[in-house]
Amino acid sequence: MNEIIHPETEIGHVHLIVSNLDRSLRFYQNLIGFQILNKEENKATLTTDGVTPLLVLEERKDAILKPARTTGLYHFAILVPNRASLARSLLHLLQSGYPLQGASDHQFSEAIYLTDPDGNGIEIYADRPVEQWERTESGEYKGITEPLNVEDLLAEAGNERWLGLPKETKIGHIHLHVGNIEEADVFYRNGLGFEATIRMGNHALFLSAGGYHHHIGVNTWAGVGAPQPPENATGLRLFSILLPNEEELKKVVERLKKIGASVELEQEKAVVRDPSGNQIQLQVKQ
Question: Could you tell me which PROSITE patterns the record lists for this protein (predicted)?
Answer without folding.
Answer: VOC
